[in-house]
Amino acid sequence: MLGLIVTRNLRLRGQAPAIIFEGAVLTHSEVAGKAFQLIRALRRRGVGPHDRVAIFSQNRPEYLIAFAAGEIGGWTTVPMNFRLSAPEVAHIIGDSQPKAVLIEAQFMNLLPPDLAASSIVIAFDAEGPDGAFDALLATESAAYIEPVRAPDAIAYLIYTSGTTGRPKGVMIGHGAQLAAARISAIEMGVRPTDRVAVAMPLYHIGARNNCLTRSLHGCPVILHRAYRTAEFLSSLKSWKVTETLLAPTMLNDLLDAQPEPSLHLPDLRKIYYSAAPMPEKILRRAINAFGPIFSQVYGMTESGGPGTILQPHQHVLDGPPEQVRRLRSAGQPMVGCEVRILRPDGGECAPGEAGEITMRSDGLMRGYWNNHVATQAALRDGFLHTGDIGEMDEEGFVFVVDRLKDMIVSGGENIYSVEVENALVSHQDVLEAAVIGRPDERWGERVVAFIVSQPGARENEAGLIAHCRSRIAPYKAPKEIIFVNSLPKLPTGKVEKYKLRSAAAREA
Fold first, then answer.
1. Which of the four, 4, 48, 66, 155, has the lowest number of CB atoms within 10 Å?
2. What is the per-residue DSSP string for 246-296?
3. What is the spatial distance between Cα 150 and Cα 436, in angstroms, rounded to a whole number?
4. Would strands 407-410 and 413-416 be described as parallel, antiparallel, or unpaired?
5. 24-27 and 17-21 strand pairing
6. End-to-end C-alpha distance for the chain, whole angstroms
7. pLDDT in tens, 350-370
8. What proportion of the chain, given as a percentage, has pLDDT over 90?
């Protein structure tokens, strides 16, 4: 079903640019042709509908081609976070059981040693165990293949960390992701003449939905391998980019890269920010530099991307206090999205009353792969229970005030405290650990750990951080460790993390 977007662009805009990467241009015809070749190559090797095909790579055109092939061919694409550690990768591979893995050579050493016995491994940029990507495609026909039409089939299996510390596979159906893209296109006012710059990793739902939303109109994607400020700024100018999506840390770097008066980008009409808390100080500076072109998007993998949006005209810097306050909000529900704030008993909260943010739309996930218990907890009565605590004002503006799941968002990456705590307490010198996020102007939040040491153990901050980096992805490791004699707890034994946040604020 999603594959119809690819074939429509082939039919209507075949010679128009689809992907621009490091100065090279691929047309819609070339993208579709390579997708058809990849389908034939993988089908020849036994990959069929409903099988999983993992992608383990930084951003590159082949990544988007692999997405297109899965959408047309009917298999489930599993985009993997290339920043994970080997044990985390092994869990995802073991859980999803991919029939094939498309990978960059630099990440080959993170794959489980026995993977080649059960999966096809093809390298984008080298000779993999089962061949090199370009060489395999060169042997196949680029003739048209009719897309599989199965709206309920799982298009993507995107892994996101859970409160257990184990990544959970979010199942997103073809029909749901198409609905999510349409919702986003309406709210973002996407035009066929737009040119979108994408620097966020393609394993993120935000980046994938951002590309898909523009593909509905055949817009070219100016794809960046990674976010490098000078290169990104240059591409905004040279490719006359009209839209982009940035995490707050990216936006802050963009502002620091060049004095505001010279930020003359006449074609840039929209900057969307998401993936992390945006400090009001940075937001005000950004609006003063770029003008009133900012929109905040609040959503998550489980929602397919959309949720709420704070439109440019709602970013009021000076005016009535109730309007200025909305700079700190996540905006109002997108068209087709229903948002409710619920009490623990399931009752709906009054305006201004904090409760759990829940949402309903046609873009919601099917559930968690191989995790019925987590699915039942997250999807109830047709609503997604986000695990975020928020409140809604009388005009429907949603304010995210805390996280039930103790998730930390640093540099656009989701980090769950229990993952870090488990890594810390695995060290012989640690008796107890509690991890929180502390506001940080650059990263949105930084990981801070409170440690109760074993009796007689030496306090070694650098050693504990290094230990964490060997057990979990390095970006999840604490940036700072505070040693304490005890952790504040309720009679039930639950750590009172709000007290730790106050203590960390005093230490800052």
1. 48
2. E-HHHHHHHHHHS-GGG---TT--EEEE-SS---HHHHHHHHHHH-S-EEE
3. 42
4. antiparallel
5. antiparallel
6. 51
7. 999 988 999 999 999 999 999
8. 71
What domains are defined for the chain?
Answer: 1-16+27-150 (3.40.50.980), 407-507 (3.30.300.30)
pLDDT at 277: 60
Instruction: Give the model confidence (pLDDT) of 372-405 as tens digits.
Output: 999 999 999 999 999 888 899 999 999 987 666 6
**Distance, CA of 83 to CA of 101 (rounded, Å):** 16
Q: Kindly report the pTM of this predicted structure.
A: 0.84
H or E element in which residue 360 lies: strand 355-360
Instruction: State the average pLDDT over residues 237-256.
Output: 88
DSSP 49-96: TT-EEEEE-SS-HHHHHHHHHHHHH-PEEEE--TTS-HHHHHHHHHHH
Q: For the segment 133-170, what is each residue's pLDDT rounded down to a tens digit? A: 999 999 999 999 999 999 999 999 999 864 345 789 99
Question: Alpha-carbon distance 78 to 96, whole Å?
Answer: 8
141 phi/psi in degrees, rounded to 5: -75, 145
- 444 token code pair: 């949105």
Q: Do the strands 221-223 and 100-103 form a parallel or antiparallel pair, or are they unpaired? A: unpaired
389 contacts 497 by C-beta, under 8 angstroms = no
CB atoms within 10 A of CB 5: 20
